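Supplementary Methods S3. Complex input for the L-homoserine-bound model.
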Amino acid sequence: MLKKSIRVRATASVANVSCGFDCIGYAIAEPSDVITITTKNKPGIEIIISGPKTDSIPTKPEKNTAGKAVLSYLNSINQEQGCAIEIEKGIPPGSGIGSSAASAAAAVVGINELMGNPLTLDDLLVHGMAGEAVASGGFHADNIAPALFGGMILIRSYDPLDILNLPVPEDLFSTAVLPDFVVNTKDARRMLPKRVPLKSAVAQAGNLAGFTLGLQKADFDLLGRSMVDLFAEPVRAELIPAFHIVQKAAMDNGAIGCGISGSGPALFALSESEDASRKVGTAMVDAFKKNGLNSIAYSSPIHKKHPEILD
Ligand code: HSE
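Predicted complex, serialized as structure tokens:
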């Protein structure tokens, strides 16, 4: 007999990873969102949201990332199932660590489970992307794919979708530092250049290839040399007060590399051990503080799990 209600947790993620604009992302262990979906006898989707700083999140299902993902999913299997979706936000919206993607990932896993799992995890991705698109105004998978599959993900192609799991060195740790203000992903995407010079495209392609080889060989020096963003960081850095100071604090304290997490304002860094990632986090929080901004750091290995069904 199918369950009537389900709770699913999905975690935050870091997108772009400096050299992989829109094509590399990884999941982190915390923070996370929890979604409870309860089926109803009549059609229609009701959205209930709780958690700090959630006033700006739309509750119309087609405008809400979890709601839209569930609508897209139900449409694909020709179902008009009604349900209530309760979203407990642990990931602040507009923070740059895949807040909307986590809600969408948990929602598609939850509704698929309630419907008896007619779709595979791979099939769920497009529905999660449809949800993510209402928040970001663009069709990108570098948060939703890691939120759904776990690990470090390469989106080799969007058309057709080709999603690859990259190898992750055991000692690789992430730090995500969230300053206390919001950047709207739609706005941050609007400021991106429509064209990039050939020289930058060549350098970015070289760095992306170097980054994937660095992961495979656990060559942290190569990873660090490759973590350069010539597309988004040059224009988005100005959205984050003291960005270059905080980035330097990370590098001075031993980070392999450091950049903007997704569309910001969070910064991320990669480090060679858990201790190193914590030290880097403290240095970054201190640097923000000296520049008048409160922030919070999350240290974590690359999180390799799918969204977790809680009950
Ligand atoms: N790749 C996306 C961007 C991630 O940078 O706009 C958004 O979190």
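The first strand starts at residue 5 and ends at 15. Residues 5-166 form a domain with the Ribosomal Protein S5; domain 2 fold (CATH 3.30.230.10).
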